[in-house]
Amino acid sequence: MKDFLTTAGLYEKKVILEDYKVGNKKYYDEQEFEDTTFDYYCQEEEKTTTFQLGLNYATNSSFGSEIHDSYFKNDFLDFSFTAVCTCQSCKKEKVYFLLHVYSDKKLSQKIGTVTDEQFRQGYRYDEPNAKIYIEKAGIFPEVKIKVDKEINKFLDKENKTFYFKGLKALSNNLGVGALGYFRRIVESELMHIVREVKSLPNSDKGAIQKLLDEYEKSKKVSSIYENIYQFLPLSLQSINYNPLMLLYNLRTSQFHRRRIFRQSI
Ligand SMILES: [Zn+2]
Phi/psi at 160 (nearest 5 deg)? Predict the structure, then answer.
């Protein structure tokens, strides 16, 4: 739970209870989470400190009753609450999370108020192996995107924008979206490298320019990497593999692996 509060991005979820059993009393309301401490970045102090999770009692009318109907929707556990998290060092900085707690199967609502036997008779919709999840459905203030200055120095204006968008997509837990941006950066930076290689004293300038011209027409980058090896200066050929092809393959294999993974879930 502590790790989840510290590191989870927007819409990231985590199982907090596996294999739910009749009689379970955990995670039925937000008080379960009250006072949890976790590491988080304090923007006031510009360093990571300990934050403590508090609840907004003014907006939660259902506190006090052990299990409240409003925590369920169609017999699924399903409620959201605002966690007000305060930096324990400066006591000023606050971070707000909208936390969504839900089950993936139907659960009985009257746990703790009747005996297990009455349960089994009265509530037949308890399903085995139900899990309870928590999800960060909102984060305020938004997580600051930390751009690596060393990487940024290398990038042109367009790629700087892609880099920022990629990091932002990552912080919103949109990994495939981020990969799309990073892939564009790698492709475009590889093209920069090809142009730099062309300007080296021993490279075959005419042949490499021909490959670049073909690319301009077809926009098919792979043909450049496949064909450039023979035109590289001898110093680059002597490593016995095509360094540009290696970089290109790295970025495509990662992307396709992610895509296949996405399709399989
Ligand atoms: Zn602080």
Answer: -60, -40
C-alpha of residue 91 to centroid of ligand 1, in Å:
6
Give the other-Cβ count within 10 Å of 16's Cβ.
16
Distance 175 CA to ligand 1 centre (A): 30
Q: Which residues face 53 on adjacent strands?
A: 85
Q: What is the pLDDT of residue 95?
A: 94
What separation in Å is there between the alpha carbon of 44 and the centre of ligand 1? Answer: 6
Domain range annotation of the chain:
2-140, 149-264
| Both structure tokens of 137 | 């459905």
* 3 state DSSP class of 39: strand
pLDDT of 234: 79
Cα 190 to Cα 200: distance, rounded to the nearest angstrom: 15
What does each C-alpha distance from 94 to 87, 150, 164 come to in angstroms? 6, 31, 25
Residue identified by tokens 């819409």 is 11
pLDDT value of position 35? 94
pLDDT at 97: 93
Termini Cα distance of the chain? 24
| Cα of 201 from ligand 1 centre, angstroms | 56
The pLDDT of residue 237 is 79
Quote the ligand 1 centre to 37 CA distance (angstroms): 13
| Residues of the chain below pLDDT 70 | 22-23, 58-68, 108-126, 251-265
Alpha carbon of 87 to ligand 1 centroid (Å): 5
Ligand 1 center to 49 CA (angstroms): 6
